[in-house]
Design brief:
Blueprint: H1 3-6, H2 15-24, E1 26-30, E2 35-38, E3 46-51, E4 54-59, E5 65-71, E6 76-77, E7 93-96, E8 100-105, H3 107-116, H4 118-144, H5 147-162, E9 166-167, H6 171-178, H7 182-194, E10 198-201, E11 204-207, H8 210-217
Antiparallel strand pairs: 1-8, 2-7, 3-6, 3-8, 4-5, 4-7, 9-11, 10-11
Helix pairs in contact: 3-4, 5-8, 6-7
Length: 218
């Protein structure tokens, strides 16, 4: 997919702005598991997803991960551009969850475009607001929602994303998404299995009773 068809507000830019974006943005193909941003203050730039799937997560001092959000086709990730989000007070890591194709938009160029284009300024403001809303929603979930409900919601969302009830995912990976220990995930999944909601095999969680998980999530 080319840059023009990937950039969400391409048609709201003038020809000169379009040319600048296309000429300096870098196209990359990245393998599943590639760390695109390591939480450092370095301003990598915006990541525009053409294909695949990215994950943004934070890391505790103990090394525990928790997923903030994911990015799909035509999404733009600003977490890798600290100079565009100068008030961000936490380090965000970005990983390719699947083999992906992305455009890297230099932050300095994007900042200039924000200054001269009301369309990009408004779009970017909405992106920043959405990013921080996702962070606040995540914190509320961790603080106020019981783990069984959070895990049920996670499994249902994974099923919708992957288009299957047979999830090829380890307990460790689920723990990384949810910011908890693998043992906690294992205990809850075993409980779900005892209640007939899932079936566990090595490296796979099969959803047996999605309706029961949905009732638990409500």
């Amino acid at each position: 997919m080319d840059f023009a068809s990937s950039f969400p507000i391409w048609n709201k830019l003038n020809a000169e702005q379009q040319q600048r974006l296309e000429s300096v943005s870098e196209f990359r193909k990245v393998k599943k598991g590639t760390i695109l941003h390591d939480g450092s203050p370095e301003c990598l730039g915006m990541l525009l997803v053409c294909a695949g799937q990215l994950r943004a997560y934070i890391l505790s001092e103990e090394g525990r991960e928790v997923t903030i959000t994911r990015f799909f086709e035509m999404d733009i990730c600003l977490f890798s551009a600290s100079c565009v989000m100068p008030n961000m007070q936490f380090d965000v890591f970005i990983e390719a969850e699947k083999d992906s194709e992305i455009w890297v938009i230099p932050a300095c160029l994007y900042q200039n475009l924000m200054d001269e284009s009301l369309a990009i300024a408004n779009y970017s403001h909405n992106l920043i607001t959405n990013h921080f809303s996702e962070v606040m929603w995540l914190m509320e979930q961790i603080m106020w929602k019981s783990f069984d409900k959070r895990l049920a919601k996670f499994l249902l969302e994974e099923s919708r994303l992957e288009g299957t009830d047979s999830l090829k995912i380890t307990h460790e990976k689920i723990a990384n998404h949810m910011g908890t220990a693998r043992e906690v995930v294992t205990r809850m999944l075993r409980y779900f299995q005892s209640e007939g909601m899932v079936k566990l095999t090595r490296g796979t969680v099969d959803i047996v009773d999605a309706a029961a998980l949905e009732r638990l999530d409500t």
